[in-house]
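To close the chapter, one final illustration. This time we ask the reader to focus less on the individual chains and more on the assembly as a whole: which components sit near each other, and how the overall shape emerges from the parts.
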Amino acid sequence: MKDTATPTVTTGPLPASRKIHVAGQLHDIRVPMREIALSGEPPLTVYDSSGPYTDPEARIDIARGLPRWRGAWLRARGDVEEWDPRPVTAADNGFAKGARLAPEFPVRHRPLRAREGRAVTQLAYARAGIITPEMEYVAIRENERRTAAHARDGEPFGADIPDLVTPEFVRQEIAAGRAIIPANINHPELEPMIIGRNFKVKVNANIGNSAVTSGMEEEVEKMVWAIRWGADTVMDLSTGRNIHNIREWIIRNSPVPIGTVPIYQALEKVGGVAEDLTWEIFRDTLIEQAEQGVDYFTIHAGLRLHMIPMTAKRVTGIVSRGGSIIAKWCLHHHRESFLYEHFEEICDIARAYDVSFSLGDGLRPGSIADANDEAQFAELRTLGELTKIAREKDCQVMIEGPGHVPMHKIRENMEEQLKHCHEAPFYTLGPLTTDIAPGYDHITSAIGAAMIGWFGTAMLCYVTPKEHLGLPDRDDVKTGVITYKLAAHAADLAKGHPGARARDDALSRARFEFRWEDQFNLGLDPDTARAMHDETLPAEAHKLAHFCSMCGPKFCSMKISHDIRAEAERQKGMQEMAGKFREKGALYVPAEAEEG
Amino acid sequence: MKDTATPTVTTGPLPASRKIHVAGQLHDIRVPMREIALSGEPPLTVYDSSGPYTDPEARIDIARGLPRWRGAWLRARGDVEEWDPRPVTAADNGFAKGARLAPEFPVRHRPLRAREGRAVTQLAYARAGIITPEMEYVAIRENERRTAAHARDGEPFGADIPDLVTPEFVRQEIAAGRAIIPANINHPELEPMIIGRNFKVKVNANIGNSAVTSGMEEEVEKMVWAIRWGADTVMDLSTGRNIHNIREWIIRNSPVPIGTVPIYQALEKVGGVAEDLTWEIFRDTLIEQAEQGVDYFTIHAGLRLHMIPMTAKRVTGIVSRGGSIIAKWCLHHHRESFLYEHFEEICDIARAYDVSFSLGDGLRPGSIADANDEAQFAELRTLGELTKIAREKDCQVMIEGPGHVPMHKIRENMEEQLKHCHEAPFYTLGPLTTDIAPGYDHITSAIGAAMIGWFGTAMLCYVTPKEHLGLPDRDDVKTGVITYKLAAHAADLAKGHPGARARDDALSRARFEFRWEDQFNLGLDPDTARAMHDETLPAEAHKLAHFCSMCGPKFCSMKISHDIRAEAERQKGMQEMAGKFREKGALYVPAEAEEG
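The assembled structure is written out below.
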């Protein structure tokens, strides 16, 4: 796949949608949302992660990147300084050369970092009682222009979701560590978002090349495509060549937080030989990535040497890439993990840029047989210890979770995480509820994801149909995102989130009234819904039909329901009239006579 | 679509699979199963619903039908007699003529019915202490050639699943009404199966034409295709022309139970005018279908006149086709449902053929807003009353359930059904856990189906991606079946069914050992898994690769896990040697010197 200078990405609004902006009260901010026009009712406002790509008024130029609009806030705080960037080396791009070297992003920015002794994380500000523009921004975003409280209908399992989110509520949640706003000071293109149990359940999409396939253009488009369909964050899990350059193109063009697993790039720098990793190479990689603007790092610092033998009897061993890499290093050197031993120094780096931690679950179960075993929970408890350390350093933290877990063991995962991890947000991969359906693991895992989201998990990492089989392509990315958006929404509904029901009710009203276009446009994937309908009923006139090809005109239950309601109305009218006749003691008395 | 005399259907075994048969002990029976050959282990035996179509030794001729092998059992009982069939009328085929009339099935059989005063249902036999060949057959089937008990690991919520199913256990479950074997005496081609909370969770696939699309050939192939992928029963929900003739082709060629909703055909007979329905027409339709061999009838006898106003405030009214039809009739005539009033006579017909009841949920919720409302549960309680009446008449009964239900309301459905319906098996449609994803409703509903299966639902009626949008085609049927098979299996796992884990563990072992073909072949859809893998790594040599394109050779966590285990082994060997050295007090002592 030839990398050209300016990749093309998918732009344009979703059907019947326009980009609107809601202004802040405390700060000079404009928060984007999506308004879906309906034919039978007022428009519906929904959360919108798709960035400027769906704004017809935005001028998109991938080679320039998105507007670095957050820069003003960052400088206004007065606690950061510009710095000379760490020079990019050939190792950063896996020693790719010539035609194999992806083009460098055309614009170079000088990175920011915290001034000496200053804490520039959202957690530090929150603890200091400061409501940042980012906090107000996410408060407005979460409310989706909702003004009134809905009647609650759900089982929140101890979550505490307010009717309307205020900036102060956001500050409290962040100060308590129950929520994070991943927002590296070097990612000023970001549209901030919040991850926490008391907010909408979020979805992450994974992109990134491997040694076998994909490149810069495809990955930038995958990011734009993923957020178009609703991904709230994107992780760049590239493991092939050009990791540095590809990442720069992605971050400069991403309105959503970007996460990475730095040990991948570190491994590439040592030619793929895990034993040759060193703390110094890893540290250097952290700085390289923090300067580029990575918003959260997955660090498998909870996987300690003594836990490795606990995996000996597992059916699928260690299935986490990062986990297996650090485990191999530990065992070879017979030393404690350098990630664990140097964790405080990692915190010092993260806090200088406000990179959030996603404390990795290197020992997550990769099969039903391994679920909830000793290794998994030993690591989880260590992640709890590390959470405390990180927070002492003002670092924002979320905790990663499984994996493959049968339904009856899912609740225990949430309970253990709440017990040991000081209310840090939980961020799970599924979990998959059975191993027997490769090709359909977006579905085996949507079941577990919806359930664990209901129980309190704050963000769900998607799984695509390609899981276990190969690198996902663009179609797989979309399928994974839509699947996880519906699972996250099912969780919000079950938790009684006051903003969730509006969309289900609007769509069901449209369905019942045969407003086909409205039904499609309110769905998570209007294009697919419309195409499926049109397979058998393609003519425009069919969009006014009071049936579809499932049942045809005589058997449509919704059509018949309307007939029933009309009949009931007619009879009610007759009953009232019959009532009047009986009072007068005659079969029929004309209305005029009544007045006599 | 032109109907030819002999439709072609998909035949041939699934990959690496052969058809095996297990003999009975009490009766002369041979129970088919599927054995999957593996390269690294003994073969795995799994349940097999696909019938003779996957048996290379079977000669398939759709125009002759499957062998009517159960006939010997039926006659041996001595309680049935042959009868002249009710003549087929033009109305039975919706007045189709000429080229539009589907061909009649080429072979005519004389139907059986119960001799005067005899009860020929599995329930009657079970109560009389008789273990029928059908009962032994399903006991063998459920065990999947398992001989030893597995350690239990699950949460059965009061289900009572034995380590190994015995014919006596089957008899008890049927006698108690907790399970049914839908097996019309006029369906001798049937391979009997059992539906009950204490057995494997089953899956139903819906097929059938509509006025808008599809015909006989397509529907026969859909049935064969659906059971190939694992559907345990199939419902023919045809609402277009040729309902009688299409159904005959389906039943004569179906090894699985066939269900119908007789009111559809009755409505066709009155030209689609619900008000013109009569008890007589309905009764005649029941006999027509029972003589053909329909194994279970969905009858919406629990939808009573006084319940209809309860739906007035619903967002989506009445979404059941049958429910809306009978509701329209009731309201127009302002009379109680003839299904309810004539229910005992319906039982008399059913018991003469052993047609099981699927008591319909005409008032199921069709939107999240309507879930668990007054109308829904009023009908459920009536279904409980009708269950008692049906059982007094020796009729087998299962209860249909919702629908659209958010996760936090699913458990209540199971509890209410257990409370009111005398332990009859529950048979739900999903439920869908959110309304916002048309095009993906197989997934929104797989979430609810897996959960309600875990809670005790015995059979899950599938939902395809086309739900709400159009009639499913063959691809949709497959997607729906695989999705529901994984949901049913996730439920079995969570319940701790002793036979469930074997397949997950076998597949995960294959995955961990890079036995790619084994991994694909053990999956629910080997073709799709293989094709997805081969999109990026198509060469035969890649099937020996210790990686796939997700991570490539350097980053495959499973490959690295093997390295880790090898290293641990090596170190253990060194440690043992080091231990010996230390005991001897020297850095190195050659082994020979030790013996000195």
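The first helix of chain A runs from residue 71 to 76. Residues 586-596 of chain A have pLDDT under 50 and may be disordered. With these observations in hand, you are ready for the problems at the end of the chapter.
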